[in-house]
């Protein structure tokens, strides 16, 4: 199947935005210092919203998204994604408003926590819509977990980069080292899980994606960066590792999504056979 | 509620491709667009001991259609009266999830209108219940039968009733789709191939 | 206004539908339907017209639906007894081709040089066109004489073709060309005429001769052998449907003999993938097996065939009077008009030779032995049956299996199915007509059917439908006899023939002032000078010159040059053997007129004057190909565009214009225009219409059209049509009617060929042709082709065959966009092992080369073909001269398989060219430049003429 790039970018950015916010929420829960929180929330919101716009590009006409909105109650894959991206973004905005207005700490933390959870759900469900029985290579829960995992890794590194840029207190940053590292490692593991679910032999038919995108970037470099972050808690103010991690993870996450499309062969592509070779069982 | 679908007797089908164009003329499809197509299966075996049949393919009217469940707008729907899976093109947003969801790859994306289309069992002819789809009417070998499988007196049911169970087949089911369309292929003509 | 197609496509749900139908007030259930309100309010009415498809050579009744005079839908007529409402994609294509941008709607003359590259046309009036053509023919005949005038027919897309014979002969010209005829149906008609006394039924299912498999009134057929025919691809919705019903509904078992696994083979009980060209061996094997295993119908052989007749050592029949000069033949006509000879047999009752007079079997004085030889006056005389047996004897199952690349047990299974049935028969396709066994195979198959007694019997393919009548049957060789007194009529004595000849000549020329005897001799000269006819005298049966002879004459001017051509078929450069060899000859023509429906490669390259022809949607006719079994319909005009006219009219108009300018004496026989063929009085369409209306029992043409449903179909009662054993009915001489042959019995041993080769025999009587030592075989003999796959031909290691595909008929429909989209280029079918050995993959382009030329196709890998055989169908590409191209050129005839074929080896009697069964080489190739393969490319062929106004047919 050919790669649906708008959908790749949507799931990548929406998941990334959601997970970035989840890391922000965690930091909010773990610390009391609010430095950089607003800016990071804004980044998460922008990334998620851009992702949302990307999904619109997949439709025959961008206005058509309104039809999807009006039919939000269908609880199809798309409507769940819409619901989740909507709620997550609203919670991000609410969180930012609470921050600006200096609302009660407990309210801020509560909104952050709920928003973070929705961010994770968003990341998961951008992949869950593809779990359909007609697509054998997609029909596994390891696929949405890989979407979640790669989003988590992306969110982790994006959070780390933003936090350093925003000069978040080093002590607070250190508290986030383990979660960031874990996120990266989960991303690597989740990719490995999906590749194994597809089957290594089948995956090897796409050598560039497999060896370059998924294994080198998505698994090895991402995991190394994650481990380095965990091991070097003292140097959390360095941009180098998070930046490398973010780049590698982004390549891995894009590769994972592209990989999903190219190995998606459908159950029986009967029109395609009829139009091309015209024969089954040569 | 009725259970309308097609039954194709492959003992009769000669793979002539006529149903492909009957559909195109009747439904106004143009070049490169299909709601219905035919593929050869085989010949398999070693020459000259070979066998083959043709497989006309189109919407299988699944009992649990993934195309309907994945549709975000309700554009893909099942007509409650006839059980026929249809697309309401006013509601379709062209997201093509139904095409990803269809196990058989028998939907068509109309680039001009930006909507997904499919076999309607010529609902413009059949909705009132007194006509048959163009491919059934015109089939050069009389291989196609239309009707309500819950009605033993429908053409489709009567044709099925002529055959033993070992001659009646469905396309393979990816899980829980339960395609309603039936194909008749007698073992004496060729062994049914599962295709997967 | 929304187009109806879009509204149909916009269907949403039932509620909208029923509302719209009610709003439109449309009553037919199949009418159009759900529509936007604006469209519904426009009040467009849909009208239905019942007519008949003419997408191939059969007739499928159909219904056309029109809105604002435009065909918006076609569908099969459910009342049709064989096609039962079916319609195939060839017929459906009329919705596009009738309105095709490639259509020719007006007479046009070429501006500038010939050739596709700069082809340019100027529209002229019909008067100008007819005048121009007449002047050109006058000039040519005045300068070079009538032998330069010729006519081309055949190849699909035309409706009737008597003009091919009539037009040149009117001038005294001997040349008629068809890619078919001698290569299609002609050979089987000849065999039928000589063996069972009539050209039809003669084994051809495609030509609607074989109908017993479709008999639902009295279904008895058990086994049908489909030999080199492909009903499901050639005549998809009629014979294809009929065979599906026969197999599935009536349990008819089938044997398919074909090198390729055609659709009917996939359903067959036995498929014999025979080596192309080796069929004579298999025919003789069938014969040997049924004789050896006593599966033959002995009674029929004894009393209804010439097989028990004793032959002299020269192979001619011995008459009773030859042995017993005083023998009184009890069947002799006291008036010496009708002939019923008595022959000689070896009688089992008396154990000696006896006179064998013609009687009903039960009244016969003898019990003839079919297979034996006896000494007569010291000479060994064999029965015709014995001669056949000796020819068949070597063809054991094993020997045949080896020769034909078959399995012995499969052959045996096939023969037993055929031979052990009570009601069976063979449907023989066109395959042998297109090979150098075009006389041998049909004669052999008919002989086999005679041995089996599968004639005029329920459930047999050779069964005549209707009655023979109660008068004596005679069989004359066509117009040559009835107009010019040439040729012997079987069933008459010499005295009878003389009388009939005098009457015919008197009727034709008695009041014309012409000397009848001179006219007779004149026609004899024309016929004997016909290109190829000196050698291939069986070509008389289709009244055609031999294709290779014409090609050579056109290119070299020897023995005389064809100079001015009236062509009424489509693309000859797709359908004629040895295509590339024709180019020079066509270029050398002084003038070419073509009447056709659409531009072809031939038009673009060679034609000087185009005349527009009606598509079948525009055509009124109740002339031929208007029936399915005993049901008859009118082919009725649905639309009429531009200035198209029925294909029969222009040549008549040109002939009459010449007569107007130069007088009727300019012609050899002007009156032949009207008397040549009873069908042709098309210069008075009103008279024709009145005649057709009368046949339907209508008051007038208008009455017929207005109340067509009341008159159609015209049905011959089942009990009259499905009648049997016609030859056993008593004739007015108190004897069984028998068959219209010399012996009044079937004559599987065709002794007439002896005389034909020697002196013209039954064709030139009372004149004799020069004896050039031609020795035509009276029986089917084993023939091995020069190129046959048996030799170690390293340069051309594969054997080539061809055959129809469902998407096209002959050379037609290459401009039908939906057909081309599904079959854009010809498939070159080959076995995967063969492909692998040449590094060819499914879908690769392939170049085929024979000793004559090259062709292209796209590899289609299939296990349904012998690894030593490849198969491809004819093709051409109108896109190559499409206006969208910067480098317009010819329609790609140089890529078609006809370039591989040969006209230099022919059937020895008929002269049929060899379209199949020769050696080729294949190699992987690049796609020839300019050929379209993607669906969207065919947009240029989508209809552009739907806005054309409806017109009346031009009167001239």
Question: Could you write a compact summary of the structure shown?
Answer:
The complex is a heterotrimer of chains A (282), B (196) and C (956). Chain A is an all-alpha fold.
Descriptive terms for the model:
heterotrimer, A: 282 residues, mainly alpha, Formate dehydrogenase/DMSO reductase fold, 11 helices, B: 196 residues, alpha+beta, Alpha-Beta Plaits, four-stranded mixed sheet, two-stranded antiparallel ribbon, 24% strand
Secondary structure elements and pairings:
The complex is a heterotrimer of chains A (282), B (196) and C (956).
Chain A: H1 5-30, H2 37-58, H3 65-70, H4 77-101, H5 105-128, H6 142-165, H7 170-198, H8 200-203, H9 207-231, H10 240-263, H11 270-275, E1 279-280
Chain B: E1 4-9, H1 18-27, E2 37-46, E3 49-57, H2 66-69, E4 76-78, E5 85-87, H3 97-101, E6 108-110, E7 115-117, H4 123-126, H5 134-138, E8 144-148, H6 155-161, E9 168-169, E10 182-184
Parallel strand pairs in B: 1-10
Antiparallel strand pairs in B: 1-8, 2-3, 4-5, 6-7, 9-10
Chain C: H1 4-9, H2 14-24, H3 37-42, E1 46-53, E2 60-67, E3 70-76, H4 89-92, H5 94-97, E4 108-110, E5 121-123, H6 126-144, E6 149-153, H7 163-171, E7 175-178, H8 186-195, E8 223-227, H9 231-234, H10 239-249, E9 253-257, H11 263-266, E10 270-272, H12 279-292, H13 298-304, E11 310-311, H14 320-323, E12 343-347, E13 352-356, E14 373-376, E15 379-383, H15 384-392, H16 397-404, H17 408-420, E16 424-428, H18 440-452, H19 479-482, H20 494-509, H21 516-528, H22 547-556, E17 564-567, H23 572-575, H24 583-587, E18 591-596, H25 601-606, E19 609-612, E20 627-628, E21 631-632, H26 649-662, H27 672-675, H28 685-696, H29 701-706, H30 708-711, E22 714-715, H31 718-721, H32 752-759, H33 761-764, E23 798-801, H34 817-822, E24 827-830, H35 832-837, E25 845-849, E26 854-861, E27 869-871, E28 918-925
Parallel strand pairs in C: 6-7, 6-17, 8-9, 8-16, 9-10, 17-18, 18-19, 23-27, 24-26
Antiparallel strand pairs in C: 1-2, 2-3, 4-5, 4-19, 11-15, 12-13, 14-15, 20-21, 21-22, 23-28, 25-26, 25-28
Helix pairs in contact in C: 6-26, 8-18, 12-15, 12-16, 12-17, 12-18, 16-17, 20-21
């Amino acid at each position: 199947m050919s790669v649906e790039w708008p959908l790749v970018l949507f799931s990548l950015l929406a998941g990334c935005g959601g997970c970035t916010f989840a890391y922000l929420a965690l930091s909010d829960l773990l610390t009391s210092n609010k430095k950089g929180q607003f800016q990071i929330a804004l980044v998460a919101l922008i990334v998620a919203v851009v992702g949302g716009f990307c999904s619109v590009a997949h439709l025959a006409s961008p206005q058509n998204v309104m039809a999807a909105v009006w039919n939000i109650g269908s609880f199809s894959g798309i409507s769940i994604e819409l619901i989740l991206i909507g709620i997550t973004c609203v919670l991000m905005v609410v969180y930012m408003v609470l921050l600006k207005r200096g609302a009660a700490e407990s309210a801020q933390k509560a909104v952050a926590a709920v928003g973070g959870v929705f961010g994770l759900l968003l990341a998961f469900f951008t992949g869950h819509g593809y779990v359909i029985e007609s697509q054998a290579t997609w029909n596994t829960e390891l696929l949405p977990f890989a979407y979640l995992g790669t989003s988590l890794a992306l969110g982790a590194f994006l959070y780390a980069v933003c936090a350093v840029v925003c000069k978040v207190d080093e002590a607070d940053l250190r508290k986030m080292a383990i979660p960031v590292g874990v996120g990266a490692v989960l991303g690597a593991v989740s990719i490995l899980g999906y590749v194994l679910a597809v089957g290594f032999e089948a995956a090897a038919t796409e050598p560039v994606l497999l060896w370059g995108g998924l294994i080198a970037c998505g698994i090895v470099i991402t995991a190394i960066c994650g481990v380095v972050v965990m091991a070097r808690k003292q140097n959390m103010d360095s941009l180098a590792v998070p930046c490398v991690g973010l780049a590698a993870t982004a390549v891995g996450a894009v590769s994972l999504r592209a990989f999903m499309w190219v190995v998606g062969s459908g159950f029986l592509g009967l029109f395609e056979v009829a139009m091309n070779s015209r024969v089954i069982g040569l | 509620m009725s259970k309308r679908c097609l039954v194709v007797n492959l003992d009769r089908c000669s793979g002539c491709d006529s149903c492909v164009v009957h559909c195109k003329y009747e439904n106004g499809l143009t070049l490169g667009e299909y709601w219905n197509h035919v593929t050869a299966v085989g010949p398999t075996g070693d020459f000259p001991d070979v066998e083959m049949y043709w497989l006309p393919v189109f919407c299988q009217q699944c009992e649990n259609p993934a195309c309907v469940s994945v549709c975000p707008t309700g554009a893909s729907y099942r007509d409650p009266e006839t059980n026929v899976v249809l697309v309401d093109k006013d509601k379709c947003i062209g997201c093509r999830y139904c095409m990803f969801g269809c196990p058989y790859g028998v939907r068509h994306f109309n680039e001009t209108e930006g909507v997904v289309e499919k076999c309607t069992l010529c609902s413009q002819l059949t909705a009132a219940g007194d006509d048959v789809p163009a491919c059934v009417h015109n089939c050069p070998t009389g291989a196609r039968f239309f009707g309500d499988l819950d009605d033993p007196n429908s053409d489709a049911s009567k044709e099925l009733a002529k055959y033993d169970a070992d001659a009646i087949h469905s396309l393979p089911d990816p899980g829980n789709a339960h395609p309603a369309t039936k194909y008749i292929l007698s073992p004496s003509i060729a062994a049914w191939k599962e295709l997967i | 206004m929304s187009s109806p197609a879009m509204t149909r496509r916009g269907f949403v749900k039932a509620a909208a539908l029923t509302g719209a139908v009610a709003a439109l007030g449309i009553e037919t259930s199949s009418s159009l339907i759900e529509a936007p309100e604006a469209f519904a309010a426009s009040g467009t009415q849909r009208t239905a017209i019942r007519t008949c498809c003419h997408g191939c050579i059969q007739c499928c009744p159909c219904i056309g639906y029109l809105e604002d005079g435009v065909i918006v839908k076609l569908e099969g007529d459910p009342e049709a007894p064989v096609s039962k409402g079916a319609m195939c994609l060839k017929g459906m294509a009329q919705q596009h081709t009738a309105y095709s941008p490639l259509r020719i709607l007006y007479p046009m003359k070429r501006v500038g040089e010939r050739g596709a590259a700069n082809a340019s046309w100027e529209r002229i009036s019909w008067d100008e066109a007819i005048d121009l053509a007449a002047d050109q023919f006058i000039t040519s005949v005045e300068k070079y004489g009538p032998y330069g005038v010729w006519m081309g027919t055949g190849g699909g897309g035309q409706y009737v073709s008597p003009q091919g014979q009539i037009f040149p002969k009117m001038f005294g010209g001997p040349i008629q060309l068809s890619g078919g005829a001698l290569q299609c149906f002609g050979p089987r008609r000849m065999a039928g005429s000589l063996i069972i006394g009539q050209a039809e039924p003669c084994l051809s299912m495609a030509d609607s001769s074989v109908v017993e498999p479709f008999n639902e009134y009295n279904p008895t057929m058990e086994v049908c052998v489909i030999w080199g025919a492909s009903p499901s691809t050639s005549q998809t919705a009629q014979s294809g449907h009929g065979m599906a019903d026969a197999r599935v509904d009536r349990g008819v078992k089938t044997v398919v003999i074909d090198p390729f696994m055609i659709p009917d083979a996939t359903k067959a009980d036995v498929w014999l993938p025979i080596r192309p060209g080796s069929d004579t061996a298999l025919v003789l094997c069938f014969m040997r097996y049924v004789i050896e295993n006593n599966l033959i119908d002995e009674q029929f052989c004894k009393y209804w065939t010439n097989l028990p007749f004793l032959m002299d050592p020269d192979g001619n029949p011995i008459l009773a009077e030859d042995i017993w000069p005083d023998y009184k033949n009890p069947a002799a006509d006291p008036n010496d008009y009708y002939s019923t000879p008595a022959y000689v047999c070896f009688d089992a009752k008396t154990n000696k030779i006896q006179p064998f007079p013609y009687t009903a079997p039960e009244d016969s004085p003898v019990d003839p032995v079919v297979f034996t030889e006896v000494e007569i006056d010291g000479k060994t005389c064999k029965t015709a049956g014995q001669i056949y047996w000796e020819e068949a004897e070597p063809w054991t199952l094993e020997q045949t299996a080896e020769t034909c690349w078959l399995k012995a047990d499969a052959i045996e299974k096939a023969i037993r199915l055929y031979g052990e049935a009570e009601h069976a028969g063979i449907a023989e396709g066109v395959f042998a007509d297109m090979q150098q066994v075009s006389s041998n195979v049909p004669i052999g198959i008919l002989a086999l059917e005679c041995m089996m007694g599968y004639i005029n019997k329920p459930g047999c393919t050779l069964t005549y439908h209707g009655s023979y009548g109660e008068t004596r049957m005679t069989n004359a060789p066509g117009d040559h006899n009835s107009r010019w007194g040439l040729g012997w009529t079987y069933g008459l004595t010499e005295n009878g023939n003389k009388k009939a000849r005098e009457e015919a000549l008197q009727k034709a020329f008695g009041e014309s002032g012409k000397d009848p005897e001179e006219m007779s001799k004149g026609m004899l000269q024309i016929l004997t000078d016909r290109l190829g006819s000196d050698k291939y005298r069986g070509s008389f049966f289709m009244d055609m010159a031999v294709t290779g002879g014409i090609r050579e004459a056109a290119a070299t001017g020897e023995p005389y040059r064809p100079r001015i051509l009236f062509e009424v078929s489509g693309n000859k450069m797709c359908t004629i053997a040895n295509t590339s060899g024709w180019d020079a000859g066509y270029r050398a023509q002084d003038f070419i007129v073509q009447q056709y429906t659409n531009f072809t490669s031939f038009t673009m390259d060679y034609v000087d004057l185009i005349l527009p022809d009606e598509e079948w949607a525009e055509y009124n006719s109740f002339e031929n190909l208007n029936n399915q079994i005993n049901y008859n319909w009118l082919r009725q005009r649905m639309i009429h565009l531009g200035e198209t006219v029925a294909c029969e009219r222009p040549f008549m108009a040109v002939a009459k214009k010449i007569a107007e300018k130069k007088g009727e004496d300019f012609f050899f026989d002007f009156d032949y225009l009207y008397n040549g063929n009873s069908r042709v009085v098309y210069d008075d369409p009103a008279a024709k219409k009145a005649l057709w209306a009368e046949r339907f029992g209508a008051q007038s043409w208008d009455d017929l059209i207005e109340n067509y449903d009341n008159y159609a179909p015209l049905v011959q009662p089942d009990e009259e049509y499905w009648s049997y054993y016609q030859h056993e009915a008593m004739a007015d001489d108190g004897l069984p009617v028998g068959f219209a042959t010399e012996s009044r019995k079937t004559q599987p041993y065709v002794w007439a060929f002896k005389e034909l080769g020697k002196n013209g025999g039954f064709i030139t009587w009372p004149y004799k042709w020069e004896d050039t030592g031609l020795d035509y075989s009276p029986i089917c003999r084993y023939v091995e082709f020069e190129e046959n796959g048996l030799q170690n031909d390293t340069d051309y290691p594969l054997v080539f065959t061809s055959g129809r595909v469902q998407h096209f008929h002959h050379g037609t429909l290459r401009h039908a966009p939906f057909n081309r989209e599904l079959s854009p280029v010809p498939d070159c079918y080959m076995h995967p092992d063969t492909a692998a050995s040449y590094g060819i993959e499914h879908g690769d382009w392939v170049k085929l080369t024979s000793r004559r030329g090259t062709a292209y196709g796209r590899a289609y890998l299939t296990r349904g073909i012998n690894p030593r055989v490849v198969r491809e169908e004819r093709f051409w590409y109108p896109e190559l001269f499409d206006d969208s191209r910067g480098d317009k050129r010819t329609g790609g005839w140089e890529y078609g398989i006809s370039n591989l074929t040969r006209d230099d080896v022919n059937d020895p009697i008929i002269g049929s060219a060899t379209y199949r069964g020769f050696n080729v080489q294949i190699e992987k190739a690049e796609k020839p430049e300019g050929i379209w393969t993607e669906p969207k490319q065919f947009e240029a062929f989508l209809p552009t003429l739907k806005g054309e106004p409806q017109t009346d047919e031009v009167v001239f």
